[in-house]
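Page header: ASSEMBLY MODEL / three components / 177 residues total.
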Amino acid sequence: MGKLLVRKWRGKNIIGRIMETESYVGRNDAACHAAKGKTKRNEVMFGEAGCAYVYLIYGMYHCLNIVTERKDFPAAVLIRSLEPVEEVDLMYMSRKTKVFKNLTTGPGKLTQALRVTRTLNGEDLTLSDKLFVVNDGLKVKPGSVVSSPRVGVDYAGKDAKLMWRYYVNDSEFVSKV
DNA sequence: TATTGGATCGCC
DNA sequence: GCGATCCAATAG
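Prediction written out in full:
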């Protein structure tokens, strides 16, 4: 949280600060894509931490996750919102919106803004020059990160109630309240 | 092989 | 509130 997500595209660094995330953790989490085992889609979740898991949702949007656990323990963090930092003009063009707050405030929006698609699925962010995370030293205020139930996972039964969505409480750049 | 529905978004 | 739009997952 608070770190910079950097997308290097055609020589430009498109950058946003991470303001909202969700955790999807292992085989026992009914909302996790890996809950029912390894498939062609989710296989990178079973790999090493630090790799990107990118998938297509609703036929038209991409979601970006970062794998977080050891090999064969499928878990990832979904990046749900960013605060725009660099190459904002490029974000406007990619998103086809005139509203600043609509550039990156949602998982499908930020992948458009940063031009992240499934070509980056499996990309190792610890080695990549196309997509990576950096810490610029700016600290998120202690205690300002709050949690809530995850968005759009009502199908997950009791796991839909887990407080595994995290966001910076005083940020304008979260996907919803 | 056929059907179903989704970790969303933007317009009505 | 609803349709877009594709494909992974699962049922047949």
